[in-house]
Amino acid sequence: MARIKDESVDAVKAAASIVDLVETRTRLRKVGARYTGLCPFHEEKTPSFSVSPDRGTYHCFGCGVGGDSISFVRETEGLDFVGAIEWLASRFGVQIEYEETSPHYDARRRRRERLFALLEQAAAFYERTLWESSGAGAVRDYVESRGLGEDVCREFRLGLSPAGATLTRKATEKGYTRDELLEAGLVTRRGSDYFQHRLMFPVTDIRGRVIAFQARKLHEQDPLRGKYVNSPESELFRKSNVLYGLHLARSAIVKQDRAVVVEGNTDVIALRQAGLHPVVASMGTALTERQVKELAKLTTRVYLCFDADAAGEDATLRAMELAVRAGVEVRVVALPMGKDPADDPAGLEPRLIDAEPYAVHRVRLELERARDRQHAYLQVQDVLNGLPESPERYEAWRLANDRLGITVELRAAASGTATAGRALSPRLVDAGEKLERRALAGVRAHPELGPLLAELTPEHFHFEGHRAL
Ligand code: ZN
After folding, report:
1. By C-alpha distance, which of 117, 201, 188 is closest to 161?
2. 249: CA distance to ligand 1 center in Å?
């Protein structure tokens, strides 16, 4: 780990203006020697957030947060101490020095810095190509036809990669080596640009530094086959660790205590344009455990808006289950077949309210997929036993009982002991159904029992058919 010299830390502290920092997150009003405003860390209507420029500190009388410029940046940007110092140094123009470390470590840090600089310049080049080149008119029209305005596209730094080896040539002229271009995933082994004539979505780390690209196909004669292609994995870019748009969504996720995960980059952009900010995209279809852990640091509520296939993938289910066990409330928004959130960005908010809890989603899937009732029973029992007790688990359990027509015996969470044998015989599963059927048949055969039946409600029966009767 890099250690920043104490003098550099002091220089950064002295240069950082707490008022400037806070004002990027909330509007402040000067009151005497202090400034006050609405707290950027919790929702409120009357200002209880106070900033003291003399002391370089902030404090919220509502939620109790407080600290200095370093803690503010750590909180709002999601950085560790070193990261926060580096962030502040670049924001306030302070040159920082590091303690002597091993030559190997220094070389590695310099190499990473050059890769970041190269990727940053590539992103800027693609942006210029999209917005300034005369030949890019059709692509700009395409973006507009997808309903994405220029402002939001610029916020996400969309770009266009030209054909040939223009980027490779320019980067080489600036002194970057072939190895660096390869490591950054910008050049092919043959020496031409890796991405050619594609719509470019820069992928960033949580600090907003470009670490890779996702590129959308625009032409049929594209040497890369996929509709969307990511940069090759590299020292900086591990697809499974990244959530697209997190650097822009982060503060909204914290403040609103919810994160919406969608599949596509354009969904993130369209939703942000429509005013829904706490939105990120998984980089492939499946959600990974790393991505979930990243979100769990920021919020206790995650909404997954995937299409039915993706929401049922094993990897995604595992990641969701992990989140639920970690205490995150996970809900799944069922999207109509072939519909993306981007198709109706304003319509997503009501769907979030109706979103299905993970436990219910999972139980429904197990019931649909099971070979037979016995299998379904065991699968559902297994899933429910793996989840902590909660109203959502109860709701899922009720659904399972209803569909299976028998009470699913669960392990008591506290004692951890089974209240029923794991392998329930099919005969037992069927017993409940038979009992209900016989009771109904008995009433039919002996009309004098009718008034007794009238005292029962449909809820007394597990089976749909019996309830109807
Ligand atoms: Zn507060």
Report:
1. 201
2. 19
